[in-house]
């Protein structure tokens, strides 16, 4: 949670997750862990998508989505280590910023 904190808003961004970019205990165990996470995520995201793909969104839900996209954009541009590294090391800005949402909103 410390990493995903928007200091200028005094807000946590997101609802949790795993962050393990410094995990280097045992290559075989670490790789097995990463594979398990990937396989579990793939299964779960398919199940969630099946349940929600035909759901109608309310105007209020759409508003919340756009505001969350704004927070995501703020985080990526101000704090994200990968974005900072890519931009500061001469990377392709279009490729680095490709994850930005096409539409976002701020309040």
UniProtKB/TrEMBL annotation:
<keyword id="KW-0560">Oxidoreductase</keyword>
<keyword id="KW-0627">Porphyrin biosynthesis</keyword>
<protein>
    <recommendedName>
        <fullName>coproporphyrinogen oxidase</fullName>
        <ecNumber>1.3.3.3</ecNumber>
    </recommendedName>
</protein>
<dbReference type="InterPro" id="IPR036406">
    <property type="entry name" value="Coprogen_oxidase_aer_sf"/>
</dbReference>
<comment type="pathway">
    <text>Porphyrin-containing compound metabolism; protoporphyrin-IX biosynthesis; protoporphyrinogen-IX from coproporphyrinogen-III (O2 route): step 1/1.</text>
</comment>
<dbReference type="GO" id="GO:0004109">
    <property type="term" value="F:coproporphyrinogen oxidase activity"/>
</dbReference>
<dbReference type="Pfam" id="PF01218">
    <property type="entry name" value="Coprogen_oxidas"/>
</dbReference>
<comment type="similarity">
    <text>Belongs to the aerobic coproporphyrinogen-III oxidase family.</text>
</comment>
<dbReference type="GO" id="GO:0006782">
    <property type="term" value="P:protoporphyrinogen IX biosynthetic process"/>
</dbReference>
<comment type="subunit">
    <text>Homodimer.</text>
</comment>
<dbReference type="GO" id="GO:0005737">
    <property type="term" value="C:cytoplasm"/>
</dbReference>
<dbReference type="InterPro" id="IPR001260">
    <property type="entry name" value="Coprogen_oxidase_aer"/>
</dbReference>
């Amino acid at each position: 949670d410390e990493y995903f904190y928007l200091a200028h808003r005094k807000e946590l961004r997101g609802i949790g997750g795993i962050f393990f970019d410094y995990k280097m205990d045992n290559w075989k165990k670490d790789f097995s862990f990463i594979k398990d996470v990937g396989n579990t995520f793939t299964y779960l995201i398919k199940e969630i998508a099946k349940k929600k793909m035909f759901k109608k969104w309310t105007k209020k839900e759409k508003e919340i989505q756009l505001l969350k996209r704004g927070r995501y954009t703020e985080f990526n541009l101000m704090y994200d280590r990968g974005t900072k590294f890519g931009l500061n090391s001469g990377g392709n800005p279009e490729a680095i910023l490709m994850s930005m949402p096409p539409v976002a909103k701020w309040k």
